[in-house]
Here is the input.
Amino acid sequence: MPSKHADVVVVGGGHNGLVAAAYLAKAGKKILLLERLDYFGGAATSIEAFPGIKARLSRYSYLVSLLPKQVIGDLGLEIELAPRRYSSYTPNPLGTGGLLIDRNDQARTKQSFESVGSQDCENWNSFYSRTTELAQKLFPSVTAPLKKRSEVIQELGELAEFIERPIGELVEENFQSDLVRGVVLTDALIGTFAPNVDDSMQASKCFLYHVIGGETGDWNIPVGGMGAVTASMRKAAERFGAELISNAEVTSLTEDGKVTYQLNGETHEVEAKYILANLARPELARLLGKTSPRAEGAQVKVNMLLKRLPKLKEQIDPVAAFGGTFHINENYSQLQTAFEQASRGEIPNPLPCEIYCHSLTDSSILSPELKAAGVQTLTVFALHTPHPLVNESNNDEMRQKFENAIIDSLNSVLDEDIRTLLLEDANGNPCIETKTTKDLEDALRLPGGNIFHEPLSWPFAEDSESLATPAERWGVSSGYSNIFFCGSSAKRGGAVSGIAGHNAAMAVLES
Ligand SMILES: Cc1cc2nc3c(=O)[nH]c(=O)nc-3n(C[C@H](O)[C@H](O)[C@H](O)COP(=O)(O)OP(=O)(O)OC[C@H]3O[C@@H](n4cnc5c(N)ncnc54)[C@H](O)[C@@H]3O)c2cc1C
Here is the structure.
């Protein structure tokens, strides 16, 4: 059996694995990175999803907020992130008008609150100026060793309520309008199946990571798509001398650093002092011949290509409506009802969705012909569709049912049927693809399609947690002394951020 040695083997070439490999190779370590798929980037990738159509869609993840400037600078990444002028648009599902948050026009935004009968404009401004303060205090710490909870709580002062109280309670206390409350709460429910007031605090953690990125909480569009972000990370890893192998499926690991993998039908072995696992915890356990409980996901993702943007029922320029995050059927009360319906095993009706159009801000992902024809991309993220709704035998049927529910939800605010606007691919099929949690598990090994690999953790350690080892201090401990997490399963993982990759590399260098 062919066998090699490396200082560090990185198992998995998601964007975090690439970042870890780049940092360690830059520090002079001999790195081998093994990726089972035929591309690098995992859930951060672009793809031509429809035969014969030259549009490179960010197939899974699509917006960037949490990638620190420090990582971009340290690795010399060439990544362009375009801001969105419009933060969000939300048609009033129970009446008329819609709420447009226009970041460049306060007066228009104020008027828009009034148009949906909400007095929450001032509340909105003061709530989000507090989350900006929270971001400024917390974000610089994500690429540093973990602090303890009590220290962070003390530093945050009265902002500590974002950590100590369920986000749903804060939303109810700070806002009056059902619609506005819903818009705020959605950041707590992306990929997180929870009731509006969630005592488990998972929704609060999800909210926190949605508002602290880059010390602003802004979500930007990666120019060239998510694949461009990953391509830059890959180039950096290679430039610093890491060896990256795709189509290399790791089949087993040992705690003392032996990694067995399959490549071109042959079994290979490599030994290393450290293994970095860019894997979900249950996947790591499986490769070690053990088991670990898994936490499943709760969303459906849809990608579409449209001949043009659809007309809306409300009088609003579609460029503004689709330019930011377009919330559909995400009023606060609708979110709670959807959670309850899904908990009973039903597909929520209406299905809460959010939509965004990449090509409005960055048309570089389209061929010149598609651009000239006015084609637009549309990405939908549907909430509250938990993994137990799908299984091995019903996945095809459920995918279609979810797709129908998403189309119905979307059509409820449109002046025309979105189906009539779908572009056709080279085979005459409509350009729409729908990914259930099962599809994500099959394609990416995300446990139950969990977009974060596992439940999110706070960006600090609990007071009772040990911070004795470098892996513990950097939040990348896997419980095995020479195996560290370098992906979403690490503390402060769970986004396109490279934070876990950076932190795992720092732990290796300090060990
Ligand atoms: C639908 C969806 C939408 C999302 N939207 C956003 C968003 O807009 N913004 C955002 O910031 N985040 C988003 N996320 C989350 C974000 O994409 C992930 O947190 C991030 O990509 C995780 O990166 P990673 O490198 O840690 O892991 P992954 O991307 O999961 O990569 C792990 C890699 O390991 C490989 N691997 C697994 N097992 C093996 C094995 N045995 N041998 C070799 N290789 C193996 C996998 O093939 C994969 O390439 C989204 C996720 C999903 C799924």
User: Anything to note?
Assistant: The pocket of flavin-adenine dinucleotide is lined by residues 11-17, 34-37, 42-44, 60-64, 66, 249-250, 278-279, 283, 301, 440, 444-445, 451-452, 487-488, 493-496, 500 (CB under 6 Å). Residues 121-213 form one domain.
